């Protein structure tokens, strides 16, 4: 434990928010599916310290053999293969710590938004549920911090993620908070946790992601059930505003200008570990065709097309107008290969939400 100070060195300056607080005097169950979700969340509480064996060392070999989680397989270049094991292990470990740090910071954002939702949502059942989510998110912050502490060190939050968290915390509109957090951020998290959980062979990480992802699928269900209930009662103008809020958040998260911050961070990690990044990139450039020739078929839709947009469609927040905007910026970032030649084709590529998100996130169904 470090020394106690009222003002700490690591805190950020305050963020002014304009949240409206709502009392609700009806305590009877009113939104049945949310009450059921609350009961389920109570049943599913777990204790990180007790349920997970934290004494196990992390098997860092796993990170080296799993690739670096970037689209281009730099770990297959001849330059990479010529490097000392010690260097490549360091890079793999730090890259994993970087990705997990963003999960960690995202969890802190989720913790604070969930707590705001307790105050801001107008239905008792929805307040109850948000209270259980607040507890869940505190536990998620706890486990990611613990894991990163064993692995390496916490790295700073990526700017695009921080922007989306700020906007979601700042808005005075509880429906925007729901859409920003429960649909966009939780959608991105659920998709990423699923991928990482199914890919990793590191036992401790796999175990904690199993616990976390199970909670997250409930958080996502809360968003879907609550938002779908509300949409039909909104004016066109209100619905358009919500659609745009989700669009901006999604755009911020995957815009290529923002992705360059990920690349900058990756370069930093390489150089810290003693890699000559220009030699690595040169080797990549020269061997690119060879490396991608035998790439496995099957495309990765990514979190926005693969999960966030399907969720918006389910909730009634994907008008033709906003779908055109999604198509436009996804095409710019990913190319027509992944999004189709026009918006109609794009809408056919967008999958349906899995029937059972809980089983989907565990990789039991596609
Ligand atoms: Fe979480
Ligand atoms: Fe969550």
Give a description of the structure.
With 366 residues, the protein is mainly alpha-helical. It has a single domain, classed as Ribonucleotide Reductase, subunit A (Orthogonal Bundle). 69% of the residues lie in helices and 0% in strands. It is built from 17 helices and no strands. It has helices spanning 32-43, 48-51, 61-65, 78-81, 85-120, 124-151, 159-170, 174-199, 203-230, 236-254, 256-272, 277-293, 302-315, 320-334, 336-339, 343-349, 357-361. Helix 5 runs antiparallel to helix 8 (174-199). The longest helix has 36 residues, at 85-120. The radius of gyration is 21 Å and the shape is globular. The protein starts with 31 loop residues before the first helix and ends in a 5-residue tail after the last helix. The model has no long low-confidence stretch (mean pLDDT 90). The protein binds fe (ii) ion (FE2) (2 copies). One fe (ii) ion binds next to helix 9.
Key structural traits:
mainly alpha; 366 residues; 17 helices; binds fe (ii) ion; single chain
**Rg (CA only):** 21 Å
**How much of the sequence is in beta strands?**
under 5%
Largest sheet report: none
CATH topology: Ribonucleotide Reductase, subunit A
Report the order of strands and helices. HHHHHHHHHHHHHHHHH
The percent of residues in helical segments reads 55-70%
Structural class: mainly alpha
The total strand number stands at: 0
Q: What would the principal axes of the Cα set say about the shape?
A: globular
Residue-averaged pLDDT: 90
Task: Reconstruct the topology from this structure.
Blueprint: H1 32-43, H2 48-51, H3 61-65, H4 78-81, H5 85-120, H6 124-151, H7 159-170, H8 174-199, H9 203-230, H10 236-254, H11 256-272, H12 277-293, H13 302-315, H14 320-334, H15 336-339, H16 343-349, H17 357-361
Helix pairs in contact: 1-6, 1-9, 5-6, 5-7, 5-8, 5-11, 6-9, 7-8, 7-10, 8-9, 8-10, 8-13, 9-13, 10-14
Residues 110, 137, 186, 216, 219 line the site of one fe (ii) ion.
């Amino acid at each position: 434990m470090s020394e106690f100070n009222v003002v700490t060195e690591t805190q950020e300056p305050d963020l002014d928010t304009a949240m409206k607080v709502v009392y609700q005097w009806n305590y009877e169950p009113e939104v049945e599916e949310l009450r059921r979700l609350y009961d389920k969340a109570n049943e599913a509480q777990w204790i990180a310290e007790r349920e997970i064996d934290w004494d196990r060392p992390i098997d860092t070999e796993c990170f080296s053999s799993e690739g670096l989680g970037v689209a281009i397989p730099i770990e297959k270049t001849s330059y990479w293969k010529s490097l000392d094991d010690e260097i490549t292990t360091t890079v793999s470990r730090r890259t994993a710590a970087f990705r997990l740090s963003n999960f960690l910071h995202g969890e802190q954002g989720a913790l604070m938004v969930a707590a705001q939702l307790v105050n801001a949502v107008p239905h008792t059942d929805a307040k109850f549920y948000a209270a259980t989510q607040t507890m869940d998110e505190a536990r998620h912050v706890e486990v990611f911090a613990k894991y990163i502490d064993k692995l390496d060190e916490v790295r700073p939050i990526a700017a695009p993620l921080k922007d989306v968290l700020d906007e979601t915390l700042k808005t005075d509109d509880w429906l925007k908070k729901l859409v920003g957090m429960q649909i966009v951020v939780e959608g991105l998290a659920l998709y990423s946790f699923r991928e990482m959980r199914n890919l990793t062979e590191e036992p401790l990480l796999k175990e904690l992601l199993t616990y976390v992802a199970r909670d997250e699928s409930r958080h996502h269900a809360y968003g879907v059930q609550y938002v779908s209930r509300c949409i039909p009662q909104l004016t066109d103008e209100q619905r358009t505003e919500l659609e745009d809020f989700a669009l901006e958040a999604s755009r911020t998260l995957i815009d290529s200008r923002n992705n360059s911050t990920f690349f900058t961070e990756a370069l930093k990690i390489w150089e810290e570990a003693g890699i000559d990044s220009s030699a690595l990139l040169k080797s990549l450039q020269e061997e690119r065709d060879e490396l991608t020739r035998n790439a496995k078929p099957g495309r990765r839709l990514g979190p926005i097309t693969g999960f966030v947009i399907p969720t918006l469609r389910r909730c009634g927040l994907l008008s033709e107008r906003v779908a055109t905007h999604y198509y436009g910026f996804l095409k710019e970032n990913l190319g027509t290969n992944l999004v189709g030649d026009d918006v109609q084709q794009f809408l056919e590529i967008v999958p349906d939400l899995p029937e059972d998100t809980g089983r989907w996130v565990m990789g039991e169904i596609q």
